[in-house]
Amino acid sequence: MSSSPDTTTLVEDQPQAPADTAADGTTTDSASVEAGLDALETVHAQRIPVGQVLRQKALPPLLGVLLVLALWQTAYSLHLTSSYKLPSPADVWNSLQDLWYQGTLFSIIWTSVWRGLSGFALSVVIGTPIGLVVAQVKPIRAAVGPVLSGLQSLPSVAWVPAAVIWLGINDQAMYAVILLGAVPSIANGLISGVDQVPPLYLRAGKTLGATGLRGARHVLLPAALPGYLAGLKQGWAFSWRSLMAAELIASSPDLGLGLGRYLENQREFSDMSGVLLGILLILFVGVAIDLLFFSPLERRVLRSRGLLVTSR
Amino acid sequence: MTTALTTSPAAPGVETPDGAYAVRLAHVHKTFGRPGTAAPVLDDISLDVAPGEFVTLLGASGCGKSTLLNLVAGLDRPTAGTIEVPGARPALMFQDHALFPWLTAGRNIELALRLAGVPKAERRAEAERLLELVRLGGAYRKRVHELSGGMRQRVALARSLAQGSNVLLMDEPFAALDAITRDVLHDEITRIWSERKLTVLFVTHNVREAVRLAQRVVLLSSRPGRIAKEWRIDLPQPRRIESAGVADLSIEITEHLRGEIRRHVQQS
């Protein structure tokens, strides 16, 4: 056993240092060297304090928003264009307050958010099996893969006229447009997630006896999760965009008042501060759902796998 | 050269009837691609490994030693010949730990137990026991990326043992580790082999490692892989890699290995 004070300290610090039970000297010596190596080479992940996280992560974007507001206010104060075309930030704030006092703000947001989220959930249910089958079955992949990639680059707003003719101006048409926008990107995310699974994991799974469905459940799907989550995130962005486009274009009392419709109504009233408010609310909802839901989920998955390098 | 398959005195108390084997390869050939067009990777390999025996397969690159291990593990089929491994499917360890990063160290082991059919109620305790065995008790909740290279290989070893097979196949498992860590892991695998009475087939290109660990070293020639020579090693365990006995035999085996490699210059 080494008698250097440093080494002794390290071994004692190590909580899992094994008791040297072996009678013969070689094994005991080896065990303590091993415990020392373990102590030396273990990386202790440090959680960064909340205050520091806020300063590093929340402050810069907040400053960015303030900068944009300042530029906007300056442009307004300099009378660069007529106030009918460019209302001040305060005007937009007043429009927001009006909606608040009318009591319609949350119902407008909720109409769209509910539609967006339920359409997205349906896209997940449909896109996931499609992605799995396309990723795993070669002939289907050859036939459907290019179509899926192509659909992903087609702006789903192009489907609105078709959906309206097929289904009428109703919720079904809205959902159809969301599905056509989000399903391909969710499926493609899963496909690329499966493609990026290191072959070693599959071999290791096979030697452990994880083949067929058990292999998919215990090895393939968890290994593909990061790619799948990226696909879900993009799928949400596509859902929200498609829905807003559809609400803008399709007008019917059956549809209720969502954010897209609100925006179009304000344009018809030539109410520029209402239009800007509509744009800002759509932006806000899209970002908020990403920040509240997808980003934390993605970060958690990546961190647990050691794929997220903590910035120092 | 072939030697009679009796267990050496250094074996940890294995008493087997003559001719018993844990792994038997009979006239195994392996060719990738269509036979006749491609050169064979393995050519007429016959090898018996006795229960409880520690055998290292040694060879330069291109000798098909990893291919051979894949065949024994059942990941691939031989083109001709038979491979028999009585009992449970053998466990295979890779150069890369191949632990699943979405699971903790303990859960990795529990997954292997689950796939081996161990009832849920017993898995947690068994996983803890296996971690203790590789001297990593307390690492149950650790994520793979929080462990050092040597610790990962020890968890991988525990996961292999969780499969419940007495036959352990190891494909250069310590090649990527630094010398000190490798040294420690040699002690570990020797200890666990004798404690658990495992049969180990260990592939390496490191002559000293082969001599340090094995009761029998099998030298493979390259392109095609054939058994060139065997040595039985009766030095007592645990050996030290820098000991004179290991060094002497290593020099002799290295000479043969170099001879095998030189043959290719003359051929081409």
Outline:
The complex is a heterodimer of chains A (312) and B (268). Chain A is mainly α and 312 residues long.
Topology diagram in text:
The complex is a heterodimer of chains A (312) and B (268).
Chain A: H1 5-13, H2 25-41, H3 50-77, H4 89-102, H5 105-136, H6 138-153, H7 160-167, H8 171-195, H9 199-208, H10 212-249, H11 259-268, H12 272-304
Chain B: E1 23-30, E2 42-49, E3 54-58, H1 65-73, E4 80-84, E5 91-93, H2 105-115, H3 120-133, H4 149-162, E6 167-171, H5 179-196, E7 199-204, H6 207-213, E8 216-220, E9 227-232, H7 244-267
Parallel strand pairs in B: 3-7, 3-8, 5-6, 6-7
Antiparallel strand pairs in B: 1-2, 1-4, 8-9
InterPro entries (chain B): AAA+_ATPase (IPR003593), ABC_transporter-like_ATP-bd (IPR003439), ABC_transporter-like_CS (IPR017871), ABC_transporter_ATP-bind (IPR050166), P-loop_NTPase (IPR027417)
GO molecular function (chain B): ATP binding
Domain ABC transporter (chain B): 23-247
Account of the protein in words:
The complex is a heterodimer of chains A (312) and B (268). Chain A is mainly alpha-helical and 312 residues long. Chain A has a domain of 200 residues: MetI-like (MetI-like fold). Chain A has twelve helices and no strands. Chain B has 268 residues and is of the alpha/beta class. Chain B has seven helices and nine strands; from the N terminus they run E-E-E-H-E-E-H-H-H-E-H-E-H-E-E-H. In chain B, strands 5-6-7-3-8-9 form a six-stranded mixed beta sheet, with helices on both faces. Chain B is globular, with a radius of gyration of 19 Å. The two termini of chain B are 26 Å apart. At the A-B interface, helix 2, helix 9 and helix 10 of A face helix 2, helix 4 and helix 5 of B. Chain A: InterPro entries: MetI-like, MetI-like_sf. Chain A: Belongs to the binding-protein-dependent transport system permease family. Chain A: This is NitT/TauT family transport system permease protein.
